[in-house]
Amino acid sequence: MASSAQQHHHHLPTPYAITAAPPPTPSAQSNHSSDAATSDALSHLLRRLPPTLSLSLPTRHRSSAATTTTPPIICLSDPTPSLHSASTQLGFFQLTRHPISAHLHLAAESVAFSLFSLPHHQKQLLFPTDCWPLGYDSAENDDDDVSAAGESFCLDPSCSTESADGSGLDLGSLRELGREMEKLGLVVMEKLALAIGFDNPARGNPSRVCSQMWISDGKNNPGRIYPYVVGLHYQARFQKYSLLSDSGWVNVSGQVEVDSVLVTLGDVAQVWSNGKLKKVRGRPMPSVEANNNSNSNCITISLLITLPLESTVAPLVPGLAINGTEEEQEDKEGSDSTKKPLEKRLFNSFSFEDYAWRVYHERILLKDPLVRYRV
Questions:
Q1: Are 354 and 39 in contact (CB under 8 A)?
Q2: Among 304, 113, 168, residue whose Cα is nearest residue 225
Q3: Which residues contact 337 (CB under 8 A, 6 or more apart)?
Q4: Higher pLDDT, residue 76 or 65
Q5: What pTM does this model have?
Q6: Which residues pair with 347 in a beta bridge?
Q7: Fewest Cβ atoms nearer than 10 Å: which of 52, 244, 291, 361?
Q8: What is the CA radius of gyration of the chain?
Q9: Angle 111-176-219 (CA atoms, 0-180°, nearest 5)?
Q10: CATH number listed for the domain at residues 64-314+351-361
């Protein structure tokens, strides 16, 4: 299973405990691959600095001119043109007639509420961050008051944590929900690969990808950003969400089918497709309009299909031109009638580990972090 690989890939040796964000790495203004490589090398160096050398993180800003849209409704049994249109024009869609039961999600949501009700010190104890990015995260202020700050838990789908297992917490429903969402996410990945025309690394080898469950308190805060291929967000009730797409902030209408799954396509999927797919940066969050009551609280549970840290991200479309040059491709027999112009490569290859570390700690939503890797 992909989840079993998650535990292995996140135990990376570092000389210091990763408990605080390192200084944000400078944003590259050049599109050349050499500049991107230099920036990634600097990012790799900065993450080894002691946690005491930290700088304040930039504040997130959301556009007040967000558009509102109702995501297209897709069924996995639908013809591929409907999936192709939704993924190349928007980067998100609503998935119906899926195998995840509403009862399972409600049970998992109840467990999630119990996690947030734990004392702050116990959250840190039960869900440590020594297997980054897994663990408990909160945006603490100077008074260590997290009541008004965003909180989140990042778990692997098996919810494997020795501390939590010995605390009496029953994470069974979260564990089952994670497994079911992971299965569904892998199916969506394969459908996308077939509809768009790129190679699916997980085809026949699920260990090439891994999964993470992100549980957030939903206080109008997108939380940490982490790169992913596809994200699945269960819709248990009529709720309007905000997400940041390639075209800017979008309010996703709450008038959708209850118990459907909002699917978002991530930055890794966009690179794999060589730019054909639109993407969503980060995870959807309850919109400001839908959460005007400051005392209200909405738990969001998302599953991200992502990559092991040692992975390299590159376009996976067959027949790409080398070094961005236009060439022609012949079949094995060399027939002129089958010559086909190669597709221009739009992204350079890059290290997933350095990219994930940078976007996770910088938390800069409005600037596309993929710009520096464009050819």
A1: no
A2: 304
A3: none
A4: 76
A5: 0.77
A6: 374
A7: 52
A8: 21
A9: 40
A10: 2.60.120.330
